[in-house]
Amino acid sequence: MRLRTHLVRMRDKDVWRCAREEIPEHRAVLVELDADGESGWGEASAFMTAVYNSETDTVVKRLNELDLEGLDPRQPEQTWYRLAHQLDDCPFALAALDVAAHDLAARLAGVPLFEHLGLPVPEGLPSSYSIGLDTVDVMVDKLNRTPGWGLYKVKLAKADDLHVLRALREHTDAPFWVDGNACWQPEALFEVLDELPGLGVIALEQPFAVTEIEGQLAARDRSPVPIFADESVTTPEQVRPAAGRFDGINVKVLKAGGLTPALAMLRECRELGVASMLGCLPESSAGASAAAHIAWLADHVDLDTVALLDIDTGTGARLDDTGRIRLAGGAGTGFVPDWTSPAHEGSGA
Description:
This protein is α/β, with parallel strands linked by helices. Helices cover 32% and strands 21% of the residues.
């Protein structure tokens, strides 16, 4: 196998905001693995770089240091297990490599990725749509631009910002999934917990910082809606301990370190009776298309990054007007890079 890297820059239709940060532009590394005339594609987003060691120059350097000699392009799991320890401090690089390896293996076999993984077709499964943090009027406008979706994921800066939910509720009957991005205070949430079901909230995601274990336990004991982990659970070994603190886990391929560990996490959630969401980071079609192929294993899906993008790196899986997955077709993930896209302007290989 031969590895190439391509630097890319994407932009959303609206500036991506949550309680933690604002990102006007998304930078990433596209990873290309080729063998026997086929290429597989993965993506490493430069997201929360201080936490995940995911700066693009770091990702490129670490990937280029790898020795791929002797690796079988038809055995992606073996590639992951051989190289994972070399990238354990750089999970997004490992994830991009693993996704590219799975994509390549499926393309060499001439089948879609879900089939290569032995999974049912995810075509038609529904995704949520994220309403990023902004003024109330802008958040209402975002919802009204995407009518008919079955679930809206709402970013709130504070737990008691229920006026935002009330304003959105005037425009939809769909349920809300509320995301605190690890920035809320327990006392503020406790004051409004009982009001959430009446506003159509069906889940809370990562309300508190990872270190706020006592507050999380108290919230789970008192909450009338399930609480899902995001930042608190990123790798397979964290799933079982988290089952005592959370009702569900948002599994993200990049944070997990690839499809190989993400699949293990989703399967363990089922085994433990813990609910799961398959989520995404700010990614292009390269990353989202791979995640879409494993969506059948999750109880909830949040792969709306492709619906939020204004500039993409290529074509792949899409969400229709009601948020349902539409695969690109063909072998592997179906992702095809578009070298004429502005995302590739000034990129290096």
